[in-house]
From TrEMBL, chain A:
<keyword id="KW-0408">Iron</keyword>
<keyword id="KW-0001">2Fe-2S</keyword>
<dbReference type="GO" id="GO:0046872">
    <property type="term" value="F:metal ion binding"/>
</dbReference>
<dbReference type="GO" id="GO:0051537">
    <property type="term" value="F:2 iron, 2 sulfur cluster binding"/>
</dbReference>
<dbReference type="Pfam" id="PF00111">
    <property type="entry name" value="Fer2"/>
</dbReference>
<keyword id="KW-0560">Oxidoreductase</keyword>
<dbReference type="InterPro" id="IPR012675">
    <property type="entry name" value="Beta-grasp_dom_sf"/>
</dbReference>
<protein>
    <submittedName>
        <fullName>(2Fe-2S)-binding protein</fullName>
    </submittedName>
</protein>
<dbReference type="InterPro" id="IPR036010">
    <property type="entry name" value="2Fe-2S_ferredoxin-like_sf"/>
</dbReference>
From TrEMBL, chain B:
<dbReference type="Pfam" id="PF00941">
    <property type="entry name" value="FAD_binding_5"/>
</dbReference>
<dbReference type="InterPro" id="IPR036683">
    <property type="entry name" value="CO_DH_flav_C_dom_sf"/>
</dbReference>
<dbReference type="GO" id="GO:0016491">
    <property type="term" value="F:oxidoreductase activity"/>
</dbReference>
<dbReference type="InterPro" id="IPR016167">
    <property type="entry name" value="FAD-bd_PCMH_sub1"/>
</dbReference>
<dbReference type="Pfam" id="PF03450">
    <property type="entry name" value="CO_deh_flav_C"/>
</dbReference>
<keyword id="KW-0274">FAD</keyword>
<dbReference type="InterPro" id="IPR005107">
    <property type="entry name" value="CO_DH_flav_C"/>
</dbReference>
<dbReference type="InterPro" id="IPR016169">
    <property type="entry name" value="FAD-bd_PCMH_sub2"/>
</dbReference>
<dbReference type="GO" id="GO:0071949">
    <property type="term" value="F:FAD binding"/>
</dbReference>
Amino acid sequence: MAKKLVTLTVNGETHELAVEPRELLIYVLREKLRLTGPHVGCETSHCGACTVDLNGKSVKSCTVLAAQADGAEITTIEGIGKPDALHVLQEMFREHHGLQCGFCTPGMITRAYRLLQENPTPTEEEVRFGISGNLCRCTGYQNIVKSILAAAEQMNAMKEAAE
Amino acid sequence: MIPANFEYYRPDSVAAALGILQEHGDEARVIAGGHSLIPMMKLRMAEVPHLIDLQAIAALRGISIEGGTVRIGAMTTQNELITHDDLLQAAPILREAALQIADPQVRYMGTVGGNVANGDPGNDMPGLFQALDASFELHGPEGIRSVPARDFYEAAYMTAREDDEILTAITFARTSGGYAYEKQKRKIGDYATAAAAVLLTKEGGKVATAAIAMTNLSDTPVFCADAAGALVGTECTTDALAAADAAMQAVIDPMQDNRGPAEFKRHVAGVILKRAILRAWSRA
């Protein structure tokens, strides 16, 4: 099968890559672009550890072909914050113990990032429903919910201060 | 996890997509949101030598509501159904049902056309569209034909769509009155143990019209004409609910699986149907 040339803009940087049509986006991100934050936790599209932001939508990159993503703008956890300039969500996950092993965290934060764009003032119930495509084996979710609610509050306060 | 390889196409018109389908026959399949097909390809339960991505076909997108008719392009995502305010006015049962399908990520990608064309009895939209008496528009080499949702499903993964046809849109009449989509499931993202779609209208304090369909209780969705008929002219009393349940039980045929034995599913189906009817009644 012929390889296909795809253009992916990932975390603001544009890459041209030759991929086999069957290559899943998660593997192109991890193995070709070495963005190993997004993880693989299942093969049935349930766990959400591979979640990235694609054209303004949270998607499970294990269930998107790189060929389908040709032309897309993608944000991974590596593009949400940097070690020396964490995003508020990342700060709050640290402060509120929203992670333990850290395997679900990149997907969880990337999903929370989009959730808060769409609903900047979610209730606890809306947060739980909004992250229901992301499984966590360690935290029991409670502290993840706290982290996201705290991040929402901080982001809203920052927005108000800026106005 | 690793699909077999294939050729990938991204046509920008229905005609071009049909051309590729015709050229490759049953070696070709269309991909919409990919959230049923890619999982099957990853498990090698589906092998598709020629994969036709419909994402670039603008004619397959969008929701239009003109007069009393709602038309939803096949590539409209579940998330678009949920966030479309005019659709919420025209047929609120769609948002209620879509919010019970899968999870946020899957709803950004999964499409209404893929949900109904897939043919998996676990999908929620097929029964819902049977209750709505929707029609599915199919484009094939001979042109366009329309198949009622109530005639579309033949068996698990078997539908009235021919291999060289593409399901392009779904149409149905704007709804009025009460509605409910009630689904029992083990967890978020699970297919139903049992689910019921109920629409009813009220006149003079009694049920004037009703439509009922059940999900995942047979190898197809189950349209329950007699169960709906048992409600008409009643005030949804205990007796009417019992009659509707009995009529529904006569046409479902649940199979044992991890969600439970057939007897349990029959019990759940009864509970779910009753809840759905009462919620629809309270909204009528």
